[in-house]
Design brief:
By secondary structure, the protein is an alpha/beta fold. It has a single domain, classed as Rossmann fold (3-Layer(aba) Sandwich), CATH 3.40.50.1360. About 35% of the residues lie in helices and about 20% in strands. The chain contains seven helices and ten strands. A seven-stranded parallel sheet has the order 1-10-9-6-2-3-5. A three-stranded antiparallel sheet has the order 4-8-7. β2, α2 and β3 form a beta-alpha-beta unit. The structure holds 2-phosphoglycolic acid (PGA). 2-phosphoglycolic acid binds next to loops.
C-alpha cells in the first residue's frame, strides 16, 4: 500500500481524477467501482471538468455501484444511485448499459447481491475501485467485523455509520443496505482510497498501523497488490513527508 499526502481537498481531487483518467487512457472501457460520500465529490467534479475539456474520454467507461440503501423505491432521489447519477453518471454521460446497479426492488436481497456479482464477473471484474474510508474503518458498507472474503450482501449499518449518514438524511436514516463485498473490492486490479479532513485522521492512522483485522475492514488493503491511499494534510498531519 502506498500513501501519498497532498495539501488539501482540492489537490486531492485533482490528483485522484488524474489517476482515474490515466487508467481510462490505457483502458477506455475500464470498470470503475465508484464510492459515494462527501470525499469523492470533488474528484467527480474534476473528472467532469476533464471530460468537458477533452482530456478524459469517458465514452466507453463503465461504472459499478459500491453500495445502496434498502427500503427506498428504485428512483428515490435519496438513493445512492440518485447521488451517483447527479455527481458522476450524468456529468460523464454514462448511459444505463454501462452501469452495474444494485436492484433494490428485488424481493430477495441475496438474489440481488448474486445478480450484482454475476454482472461484475461478466464485465471482466473491477479495474479501479475508488473508495472512501468510513469513520469506523468500513469500505463500502462492509461494517466491522468484515473479513477479506465477505461477500456482496445485505448488511445492517452500524450506529457510527448511521450517525455519519444522518446529515445527509435529516429524517429517518435507512438502516439496511446492500454492499459490494470485501471480496469484490479486494479483487479489483487497482484500488484508490481517498481520505480527507481531520475527522478521518485517527481512523487513517489506525488503518495504516493495523494488521489485517476484520474489526477494521480497510486494514485488508495492506494485502492488496496495487492500493494507493491519497490523503490530505488534515487527514494526515505532519506524520509523513509529501510523496
Ligand atoms: P465520506 O464517507 O466520504 O462521506 O466521509 C466515507 C465512508 O463512510 O465510506
Amino acid at each position: 500500500m502506498e500513501l501519498h499526502v497532498v495539501d488539501d481537498a482540492r489537490a486531492l481531487a485533482v490528483a485522484a481524477a488524474a489517476r482515474v483518467a490515466a487508467v481510462v487512457a490505457t483502458r477506455p472501457d475500464a470498470l470503475l467501482l465508484a464510492a459515494t460520500g462527501d470525499t469523492p465529490i470533488g474528484t467527480y467534479n474534476e473528472l467532469a471538468r476533464l471530460a468537458d475539456d477533452g482530456t478524459l474520454d469517458a465514452s466507453r467507461l463503465r461504472v459499478a455501484q459500491l453500495d445502496e440503501y434498502l427500503g427506498l423505491g428504485g428512483d428515490d432521489p435519496r438513493s445512492l444511485y440518485g447521488w451517483m447519477e447527479r455527481a458522476l453518471l450524468a456529468p460523464l454521460a454514462i448511459e444505463p448499459a454501462r452501469i452495474i446497479r444494485f436492484d433494490v426492488t428485488h424481493d430477495d436481497p441475496t438474489s440481488a447481491a448474486r445478480s450484482y456479482d454475476a454482472q461484475v464477473r461478466a464485465a471482466g471484474g473491477v479495474d479501479l475501485a475508488l473508495l472512501g474510508l468510513g469513520p469506523n474503518g468500513h469500505l463500502g458498507f462492509n461494517e466491522p467485523p468484515s473479513g477479506a472474503d465477505a461477500p456482496t450482501r445485505k448488511v445492517r449499518l452500524n450506529p457510527e455509520t448511521l450517525r455519519s449518514n444522518a446529515d445527509y438524511w435529516r429524517d429517518a436514516v435507512p438502516e439496511r443496505a446492500l454492499t459490494a463485498g470485501m471480496s469484490v473490492i479486494l479483487a479489483a486490479r487497482r484500488i484508490l482510497v481517498l481520505v480527507s479532513g481531520e475527522g478521518k485522521a485517527s481512523i487513517l492512522d489506525r488503518m495504516l498501523r493495523s494488521e489485517p483485522d476484520p474489526g477494521l475492514p480497510a486494514s485488508f488493503l495492506h494485502h492488496h497488490a496495487d492500493t494507493v491511499v491519497l490523503a490530505d494534510r488534515d487527514a494526515r498531519p505532519d506524520r509523513t513527508p509529501h510523496a
